[in-house]
Amino acid sequence: MGLAVALTIALTGATTPSGLQSGGEVAAPPVSAGASDVQPAVLAVANTSGIPGVVAYDTTGWPTDRDDGPAAQALRREHVTGPVAYSVTPPVGGDHSPIWLNCGVYDQPVPNERAVHDLEHGAVWITYRPSLPAAEVHQLQAFEARQSPVGATGSRYVDVSPYPGLSSPIVISSWGFQLRVSSPIDPRLQRFVDTFRASSTYAPEPGGECTGGLGTPLQR
Predict the structure, then answer these.
(1) Dihedral through CA 18, CA 19, CA 21, CA 27, nearest 10?
(2) Closest CA to 174 of 92, 100, 76, 104
(3) What whole-number distance in Å separates Cα of residue 76 and Cα of residue 122?
(4) Is the pLDDT of residue 7 over 50?
(5) Per the domain annotation, does 57 fall within a domain?
(6) Number of domains in the chain
(7) Model pTM?
(8) Alpha-carbon distance 91 to 178, whole Å?
């Protein structure tokens, strides 16, 4: 029996995530009040991250008084009270709720508009198909737990949540960048976190709040 358990752990690469609280999640409320906001198509640009497979989007020139040229296709950054129809799925930025999501692991979908606010603050958002095998979901939770806290709040600046309708089993996003992978042990996931999380180069407001918002994650 002991050999079988050891073999299972070795094959899945799973470890028990620190701080996981089974059944302790409180979902962040959806964004429903206010007028709907439709995000215009965002311009894809050259991937300068050095990470193969990353798709990059224009983040320059916003806010701006220009209404032509590349700036008009850059990710917007306004606070809006209503729901947003994003042109990229999952979103990589854009207009968002003024109240962010408390960063951490969720086992239910989270509101786009609140997660995007986290991206603005330098968080990365790992989304996965709801049908992803439980062992692989556990690996993503363990991955989040292995990341070092950022700043005095102790937050890891990583969100993990299921996301219906993904074209790839797992998608990791930051402000303006996105990577699709098939496996939770793809080494590019760590490279993505190391490059974009709380980055003063890529995040509009690095180190902004990732606690004190809405939602109680299973694991911070």
Answers:
(1) -110
(2) 92
(3) 16
(4) no
(5) yes
(6) 1
(7) 0.87
(8) 9
**Phi and psi angles of residue 83, each rounded to the nearest 5 degrees, phi first:** -70, 150
CA atoms within 13 A on the CB side of 103: 30
On whether residue 202 sits in a domain, the answer given is no
Residue 219 lies in a domain: no
Q: Which amino acid is at 140?
A: L
Note the pLDDT of residue 161: 98
Give the residue from 163, 148, 79, 20 showing the smallest Cα distance to 173. Answer: 163
pLDDT per position as a tens digit, 14-59: 444 444 544 589 888 888 877 788 998 999 999 999 999 999 999 9
User: Could you tell me the maximum CA-CA distance found in the chain, to the nearest angstrom?
Assistant: 67
Instruction: Summarize pLDDT for 113-142 with one digit per residue, the tens.
Output: 999 999 999 999 999 999 999 999 999 999
CA 85 – CA 5 distance, rounded (Å) = 45
| Exposed / middle / buried, residue 107 (Cβ in 10 Å: 0-12, 13-18, 19+) | middle
Using DSSP bridges, classify how beta strands 84-85 and 37-38 pair: parallel, antiparallel or unpaired.
Answer: parallel
Q: What is the residue range of 108's domain?
A: 2-196
Is 109 inside any structural domain? yes
